[in-house]
Amino acid sequence: MAAPSATNANAVVPNKIGSPVGKDEFDPTRPVLNLAGRPGVPMDLARAALFLVSDDSDFIVATALFVDGGCTAIMPGNA
User: Fold this and answer.
1) Among 29, 42, 59, 71, whose CB has the most other CB atoms within 10 angstroms?
2) 35-40: long-range contacts (C-beta < 8 A, 24 or more apart)?
3) pTM of the complete model
4) pLDDT digits (tens, 9 = 90+) for 45-58
């Protein structure tokens, strides 16, 4: 069944981007547990969104793109 229009409904799911909720700044000494080994920055999220609005993602439909440095992959139960 084809989509009724040319709209691709996708989502970007951020995690570990910028400072923790309720904090104005990110503490660089705070450990970050993800596969990338570094905290995410707003540009990481912006690049993912830019990809989804580009022609390069024209065959990606109804997908949640996790932008979390691999944090979801190492969560218990995701093996």
Assistant:
1) 71
2) 35/69, 35/70, 35/71, 35/73, 35/74, 36/69, 36/70, 37/69, 38/69, 39/69, 40/14, 40/15, 40/16, 40/67, 40/68, 40/69
3) 0.77
4) 999 999 999 999 98
